[in-house]
Design a protein that fits this description.
This protein is α+β, with helices and mostly antiparallel strands. It contains four helices and five strands; from the N terminus they run E-E-E-H-E-E-H-H-H. The chain folds into two domains: 90 residues, OB fold (Dihydrolipoamide Acetyltransferase, E2P), CATH 2.40.50; 51 residues. Strand 1 and strand 2 form a beta hairpin.
Length: 176
């Protein structure tokens, strides 16, 4: 069994399957190119895997385009070789997969431009929401979901404090 280095690829999910075992669930994802990847919902210690938490947090489903970080493992079953692709994590796709045509990209770009709100309040709220998601995901790396849920109000208060510190200064508040 030969292990390879971690790899990443942007895929579009075309199929999701779940298989239950005594120790947890295994999820198999098939890309639009027919390549299969898998991840588990729990680690050996019973805590959720990073891949499973990200899969849920990102709301991934059939049709989602996402970057997968995975490791390939060369294996053999009944004398036949095969490759396991174990997903370590998901990331938001920076670009579209290579199979996207110029027409699809043009249509998506045009739609995104037309749908973007222009007011500053929207962008401030969006930035705040993304910051909170990042903060919470960072906490989930070393904590259980239950621990993070118990800290939500504290995390929101901390984020409010950060907002106050970063807010523009009113010139009337300057002491000279």
């Amino acid at each position: 069994m030969e292990n390879t280095q971690n790899q990443s690829k942007t895929i579009t999910i075309s199929k999701v399957e779940m298989t239950s075992f005594d120790t947890g669930n295994q999820y198999k994802i098939t890309s639009s190119e027919g390549v299969k990847y898998k991840f588990y919902n729990t680690k050996k210690d019973g805590n959720p895997t990073v891949a499973f938490k990200q899969f849920l947090d990102m709301g991934l489903k059939i049709g989602s385009t996402v970057e997968v970080w995975y490791k390939e493992l060369a294996k053999e079953y009944e004398g036949k070789p095969y490759t396991d692709r174990i997903i370590a994590s998901f990331r938001e796709a920076v670009g579209r997969p290579a199979q996207a045509t110029k027409q699809e990209l043009k249509k998506e770009i045009q739609y995104n431009i037309e749908q973007q709100p222009k007011d500053e309040k929207f962008w401030q709220e969006r930035g705040r929401r993304l910051a909170l998601h990042g903060f919470i995901n960072g906490r989930l790396v070393n904590h259980t979901i239950a621990e993070v849920k118990a800290e939500i109000n504290e995390l929101l208060a901390l984020e409010d404090e950060i907002d106050k510190k970063l807010a523009p200064i009113d010139p009337s508040d300057i002491p000279f």
